[in-house]
Amino acid sequence: MAHPNPSLREVDPVWRRIRTEAEDAIKAEPLIGGMIHACILHHNSFEGALAYRLSMKLASAEMSEQIVREIADAAYAEDSSLCAAARADIVAIVDRDPACQRFLQPLMYFKGFQAVQAYRLGHWLWQQGRRDLAYFVQMRVSEIFGVDIHPAARIGQGIMIDHAHSIVVGETAVIGDNVSMLHSVTLGGTGKEDDDRHPKIGNGVLIGAGAKVLGNITVGHCSRIAAGSVVLEDVPPMKTVAGVPARIVGEAGCSQPAMSMNQLLPNGS
């Protein structure tokens, strides 16, 4: 797939970095040369590589790789914000995850990144009114990655989901920009309501492993939710909450907790 903006391709630092790292990876391990060529070097743009990677992951006996690839190509051609968000997600992961030293890794190997990009494709389909295809994408993301994000949920950019096992995000949930969360996080409802019933997560929030945020509540910007907490009430901006049920135990500790990834609680908490 050609880049939708040829001039941008020439100054696309994320894509240029990925291609360079792909060439280095083949030199270091020739046995992965075929895979790296098919996934990265065969393509002229980040959009093309991402569409191919998602098609390989989401395809099944019920939906061929070619059909998924055509859907992704159409989405990226129509809405350039999808891959702009993907680029921001890659940068966020490299910046925040000490296990990630290369831009190549999220695209090739990290199911958190791949699951979020597949969600973005499903969300685009949902907005187009193509609900059954959106549900198909949601189903495959849940089956393949262990991540269940409703396609109607709204998620910003610069998202890092570390390990990304057993993530659940409900239909009316909203996640802001530059949010970090760890495995087994649930953004869910509290009952059978069919209206606006899921959490609203502000920009820059850090959500620890196993945390459950339930109901139509607001988690203020740049706050922290400690691992294992159950949050049932609004959280003010720039606070740390912990416990079951969660309570405020201190300030957030820094201006950007989602970027610092500091999960230690204040002394005495």
From TrEMBL:
Keyword Transmembrane: no
InterPro entries per record: Hexapep (IPR001451), Hexapep_transf_CS (IPR018357), LbH_SAT (IPR045304), Ser_AcTrfase_N (IPR010493), Ser_AcTrfase_N_sf (IPR042122), Ser_O-AcTrfase (IPR005881), Serine_acetyltransferase (IPR053376), Trimer_LpxA-like_sf (IPR011004)
EC number: 2.3.1.30
One Gene Ontology term from the biological process aspect of the record: cysteine biosynthetic process from serine
UniProt keyword list: Acyltransferase, Amino-acid biosynthesis, Repeat, Transferase
Superkingdom assignment: Bacteria
GO cellular component terms listed in the entry, alphabetical order: cytoplasm
Domain Serine acetyltransferase N-terminal: 14-118
Catalytic activity as recorded in UniProt: L-serine + acetyl-CoA = O-acetyl-L-serine + CoA
SUPFAM superfamilies: Trimeric LpxA-like enzymes (SSF51161)
GO MF, one annotated term: serine O-acetyltransferase activity
Entry-linked CDD domains: LbH_SAT
Top-level class of the enzyme under EC nomenclature: transferase
Pfam families assigned to the protein according to its UniProt record, in alphabetical order: Hexapep, SATase_N
Pathway stated in the Swiss-Prot or TrEMBL entry: Amino-acid biosynthesis; L-cysteine biosynthesis; L-cysteine from L-serine: step 1/2
Family: Belongs to the transferase hexapeptide repeat family.
Name under which the protein is recorded: Serine acetyltransferase
Originating species: Yoonia tamlensis
